[in-house]
Design goal:
The chain is built from four helices and six strands; from the N terminus they run βββααββααβ. It is α+β, with helices and mostly antiparallel strands.
Length: about 140
């Protein structure tokens, strides 16, 4: 599978603006700017999209791992926070933290933690990131 996304930027870093689009058109010329990335402007930013991608990918990976262990989640809710820090020659994503809460009928805390750790290690987006990935996972 191969999907495409695109970004257009116009102007300087602080006064410029950009738009992001995806092949699926879920994002279509969605606005982003310096203020949406580093302040409280209205629009999206690359880190927010990375957070959404990691949360979504992890949730699907956890569902797969649970199914492979004979369990089916009733609900998996994953929140992701990306840390963007300035250092040296620019900015770096230094951490992706997952907060997971799931309802899995019949799952023990031990089986759930094992599945969550497996999903964290093997979700394709986790593998993509070259950063520390932390997680709190709760069985509800």
């Amino acid at each position: 599978m191969k999907r495409l996304a695109s970004a257009v930027w116009q102007g300087g870093i602080r006064d410029g603006k950009g738009s992001i689009s995806t092949q699926s058109t879920v994002l279509k010329e969605t606005q982003y700017s310096y203020s949406t990335r580093f302040e409280d402007g209205v629009g999206t930013n690359p880190e927010e999209l990375l957070e959404a991608a990691h949360a979504g990918c992890f949730s699907m990976a956890l569902s797969l791992v649970l199914n492979q262990a004979g369990m089916t989640a009733e609900r998996i809710e994953t929140k992701c926070a990306i840390s963007l820090e300035k250092g040296g020659e620019g900015f770096s994503v230094t951490e992706s933290h997952l907060e997971v809460e799931a309802k899995v009928p019949g799952a023990t805390a031990e089986a759930f933690q094992k599945a969550a750790e497996g999903a964290k290690a093997n979700c394709p987006v986790s593998k993509l990131y070259n950063t520390k990935i932390t997680m709190n996972a709760k069985l509800g």
